[in-house]
Design a protein that fits this description.
This protein is about 65% helix and about 0% strand. It is built from two helices and no strands. The protein is an all-alpha fold and about 80 residues long.
């Protein structure tokens, strides 16, 4: 039984070694990406982000319009 546990430990050690090597390689490539000025979290590369557009410089107007609409509804209720 001691041999089986020892063999499983060797497999786990090998797996841990490969995982740590992979993480080290990814971290190193992340350092290269940051040096080039790209986004370090890679959120723009995510699958759910591929069809979305960035907000234009006039996006703040929507917030102002929504606040004005809420204020006008509240003024109609309380007046």
């Amino acid at each position: 039984m001691g041999i089986i546990v020892n063999k499983e430990n060797n497999k786990n050690d090998e797996l841990s070694r490969r995982i740590s090597a992979d993480l080290r390689a990814r971290a190193q490539s992340g350092m290269d990406v940051r040096a080039n000025g790209a986004s370090p979290d890679l959120a723009d590369d995510a699958e759910y982000m591929k069809d979305l557009k960035k907000t234009s410089k006039f996006g703040w107007i929507w917030i102002v319009l929504i606040v004005l609409a809420i204020l006008s509804v509240l003024s109609m209720i309380f007046i």
